[in-house]
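Ticket #281: bound-state structure for NAP.
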Amino acid sequence: MIELGLIGYPLEHSWSKDLHEQAMQVLGMEGNYHLWEAPPSSQGQEIIASRLRALREGKIDGFNVTIPHKETLLSHMDRLTQGARAIAAVNTVFLDPGGEVVGENTDGPGFWADVHRVLPSAGGKKQRRALILGAGGAARAVAYALSTREWEVGVAARRVSQAESLAAQFRDQPGKVEGHPLTDRAALDSAAYDLIVNATPVGMDPDAGRSPWPDSWTFPTHGVAYDLVYNPPQTPFLQQAEDRGLKAVNGLGMLVEQAALAFECWTGVDPPREEMLRAVR
Ligand code: NAP
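RESOLUTION: The complex was predicted; output attached.
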C-alpha cells in the first residue's frame, strides 16, 4: 500500500487527492492520498511533526505541502534539492534511499514543462522575455524556472519591495530578473513580452471576476498569457489576452505536471498525465 497525502490549510477545495488516486488506479497501485489539514497553530505544528515521524518510520511514502506551510517546512528537512533551496519553498517531501527527509519543489519544473508544451519555442534562443504579476511563492517558482534558462524576467507586485526582493534573490541566475511596482504603467505597458504570467490569486475567489491587469492598460500584443489560476478555467486575465488575440492558457497543465513530478519522487514511476488531467477536468 502506498500512503501519500497533503499538508496544508484549508484543503476542502484541493484537487490533489483526485490527481494522485487516479494515477495509482491507472497504474494498478494500491494506495491512498490523504488530506491532512494543518491550521497555522500549535495543533497544525503537531500534525506536521507526526507526518514527518511517520515518513521516517516508513509508515507513509511522502507528502505534498501547500499554503500556509510551504516556507515553514524548509527548516524541517534534512536536505533540500537545489530548486527548493533557490525557490525557498517546499511542495513535496520524500525519504531518500539513505533515510534523509528531502524537500523538493516541483512547481518550477511543473510550470516549465507546461509552458514548453504551449510555447514550444520556449527553450530556443528567441522569445525570452517574460513578465510575472505577483511576487509570492508561485512567482518565485516561475522566476526560477525562467531565469535559470536565460529568460529575462520582469516581476511586478503591488508591494514593490516584494518584487525587488524576489529579483535580488535571483540575481546570480543566467537570466536578468527585475522588480517593478504593479502600478508602473510605463514599465509594464509594453509590447515586448513573449510570456505574461499571472502569479497572483486574482481571478479566483474572493477575487473572481477581476484581473490583476488594469483594463485601461494595453495588453501585450503577442506571445502567450499564462494564468496560474485554474479554477475557474477562464479568468478575466485570460479573457483580456484572448481579446487581444493572444494564446491564453490556465494553470491546470502546471497543476498536473507538478503533481506528476511529485508522484515520481515518491514512487519512481512516471505517472499517466493525460489520465490525471481527465480526473480533474
Ligand atoms: P502567495 O505566496 O500568497 O503570493 C500571491 C502574490 O499575489 C503576492 O505577491 C500578493 O501580494 C499578490 N496578490 C494577492 N492579491 C493581490 C491583488 N488583489 N492584487 C495584486 N496582487 C495581489 O500565493 P502563491 O502561492 O504564490 O499563489 C499564487 C497563485 O498561484 C494562487 O492562485 C495559487 O492557487 C496559484 N498556484 C497555482 C499552481 C498551479 O499548479 N497551477 C501552483 C502554485 C500556485 P501581497 O503579498 O501584497 O498580498
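RESOLUTION NOTES: The first strand starts at residue 2 and ends at 8.
TICKET STATUS: resolved
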